[in-house]
Design a protein that fits this description.
Keywords: Membrane, Transmembrane, Transmembrane helix. This protein is mainly α. Helices cover 83% and strands 0% of the residues.
C-alpha cells in the first residue's frame, strides 16, 4: 500500500501554513483596536435599530388590540 497523494498534499499544505503563521510578526495591534471600535459601533447601531423596530411593533400591536 502506498501513501495517498491527496493526504500528502494536505499534510504539506497545512505544514506550510502553520510555519507561515509561526513566523508572522504580531504588529497589528492598532488595526485590532480600530476593528474592535468599528464592531462596537455596529453593535450599538444594530441595538438602536432593533429598539426602534420593537417600539414600532409594540405601537401597532397596541392599536390592533
Amino acid at each position: 500500500m502506498g501513501t495517498d497523494p491527496n493526504f500528502t498534499f494536505l499534510k504539506a499544505f497545512f505544514s506550510a501554513r502553520i510555519d507561515r503563521l509561526r513566523n508572522v510578526r504580531d504588529d497589528r495591534g492598532a488595526i485590532s483596536i480600530e476593528t474592535m471600535m468599528i464592531i462596537a459601533g455596529l453593535v450599538v447601531g444594530a441595538a438602536v435599530a432593533v429598539a426602534i423596530i420593537a417600539a414600532k411593533i409594540n405601537e401597532k400591536a397596541a392599536t390592533i388590540k
